[in-house]
């Protein structure tokens, strides 16, 4: 069987996770990598072509079926997504929930114009948890399905929010940990269906390395006012050294749960809960992106075009197994 060829666009922690995930998917192979810093990437990757982002003729010559876009949601994907969609099928993990409708319509227009498929906002949230919220509310009509993240005492490291911190002038490096509010989760599990505001369910904790001449007060003010990321939440900002950040906050653990509670029939209590626990957040996101790249290739082969989300795709399209195998062993 001819393998699905993947182009990685942007090579950081998620890009490295995609390389690792492809090795676990025998029907796929890495065609190449494009980066704004190709010289840096070539020092790390030597077995596939590494090209500059703007080398269009070069990356098109690799004949990749799908580009997995591994840039950040704040600044990279809003520009890179529509630009790449004109040249090839794409998959991305755009994670600014409040801007997903706007981003979807932009990508839909670009992908249809280029006659390609673009799957947006996938990973585990948005992505897997988007699907679980939809299923929870469908199977228990009248209930609300909520996503909670960072259930353990250390919370969970958010890549998108950490990336947003690093875009602030004067910030050298940063990590952001999300903490679920335990009382809020318990109210959901009890079936109260509360109408939470975003800040009622989570708090955010930031660890920031500032440049020596940076105005820390201004950085903290900018963080807490950042729309779509920190503005609605109780946010704690800690300024620490690079050495302390590297030592105490290495690794990328994260976890979360989708919970819905309601009633069936004449009032029998019912609850649905789905949990993910990830030792590596970027590798988890990458694994989901790779499965969606398979779906993108299948949709394109059917003559489909435009933007899609996980809600629009049959689950079988994500799997490496054929229909007979799924019917025999996975139903």
Main β-sheet description? 7 strands, parallel
CATH class of the largest domain: Alpha Beta
Q: Give the H and E element order.
A: EHEHEHEHEHEHEEHEHHEHEHEEHEH
CA radius of gyration: 21 Å
Question: Which architecture of the largest domain would the CATH scheme give at its second level?
Answer: 3-Layer(aba) Sandwich
The portion of residues forming beta strands comes to 25-35%
Please give the number of β-strands: 14
Strand line-up of the largest beta sheet: 3-2-1-4-5-6-14
Structural class: alpha/beta
CATH superfamily of the largest domain: NAD(P)-binding Rossmann-like Domain
Please, how many domains?
Answer: 2
From the 3D structure, determine the CATH topology of the largest domain. Answer: Rossmann fold
Instruction: Round the mean pLDDT to the nearest integer and report it.
Output: 96
Number of H/I helices: 13
Determine the fraction of residues in helical runs and give it as a percent range.
25-40%
Task: Return residue spans where pLDDT drops below 50 for at least 5 consecutive residues.
Answer: none
What is the CA-CA span between the terminal residues? 25 Å
Describe the structure using short key phrases:
four-stranded mixed β-sheet; Dihydrodipicolinate Reductase, domain 2; Rossmann fold; 331 residues; 26% strand; alpha/beta
